[in-house]
Amino acid sequence: MKRGILLLCLLSSCYQTLPPQRPTEINLPPRQLTAPEQAQLERPNQSLELWLAELQSQSALVDTIQPGDAFNLSVYGEPELEMKGAVVRPDGILACPLIGDIAVTGLTVDSARAKIQRELEKYIQNPRPTLSPYQFAGRNITILGKVNRPGSYSLSQPTRVLDVIGLAGGFSVGIIKNDSTELADLKHAFMVRKQTVLPVDFEALVKQGKLQNNIPLLPGDYLYVPSIAQQEVYVLGEVYEQNSFSFHDGMTVSQAIAYAKGPKDAANLRQVLLVRGRLSQPELFVLDFQAILQAQEADVLLQAGDVLYISSGPMKSFQNIMQVALPALQAVQGGALLYELFRSRSVTP
């Protein structure tokens, strides 16, 4: 009966009487920022809309030929003059059949084609050459993370964000908790140009069709799509269902414990351990969940990847806390079955 009353309190009217959802005075680190939020920090005095408009106006390609660029050349009616993937040498020369070396560095593709045509006219009547880019050197962009073909791609033509997602085969799909789901965390995907996070909102672009985010790419751009599989919180220890639970914005300690079917009778609600961060530098916080339930303290906002551990006894020292926190964090990041690790674990006084 006690368990049922507590769960009802967490999930219904008692929960509604809690203070507004905000971090408490324990100075928890801020949640992970989205790309537009991070970009706004880098340019606090600039409107993101104006910044996106500025990015939309930028050319996606360098207009002139550079050493290392490669081209295909064909001449109508002259199959013996065809060449594929011919590379511009470091001295700016493109070696062509029949006419020999042609200096092309600094020219546009059309200007280089016209120059080749003039040289061919010395040998062929009314030549009609076609010069097409095969690959532009040094004009690569990189997309990594949860796409089907991560890697570097050459910008051989004007390319935008959606284009490179298509080149990379779209977003990865996997199985999470027996359901097929897209693994890309679009909310926290980001794009970096010259060490600056750009205000591209991948979620708005892909799911809402807001094409102002579909900006042209420039050589050296880096795109990263994190995994949504990391968007979970873990509730362990003296609860009725130790498990991982899907994270959502605004998720609180009270909600996470309610998802775990509530604390057991032996739970030490005065010292609920919150573990945040990586194993190399974990951040540990001890929360008074009893005070949160009684509306004496504000509920605490969680971040994806947070671990909550409820012990059956008091934690008296930092070393005592670490005995609980580090195995929990290691298990989470190693992908172990968490409830098996903590099924019989308790903290001794």
From TrEMBL:
Domain Polysaccharide export protein N-terminal, chain residue ranges per copy: 64-130
GO biological process, one term: monoatomic ion transport
InterPro entries named among the record's database cross-references: Poly_export, Poly_export_N, SLBB_dom
Compartments where located: Cell outer membrane
Key words of the record: Cell outer membrane, Ion transport, Lipoprotein, Membrane, Palmitate, Polysaccharide transport, Porin, Signal, Sugar transport, Transmembrane, Transmembrane beta strand, Transport
Protein topology in the membrane: Multi-pass membrane protein
Main location: membrane
Pfam family, one: Poly_export
Domain annotation SLBB: ranges: 141-225, 231-310
GO CC annotation: cell outer membrane; pore complex
Protein name per UniProt: Soluble ligand binding domain-containing protein
Species for this entry: bacterium (Candidatus Blackallbacteria) CG17_big_fil_post_rev_8_21_14_2_50_48_46
Organism classification: Bacteria, Candidatus Blackallbacteria
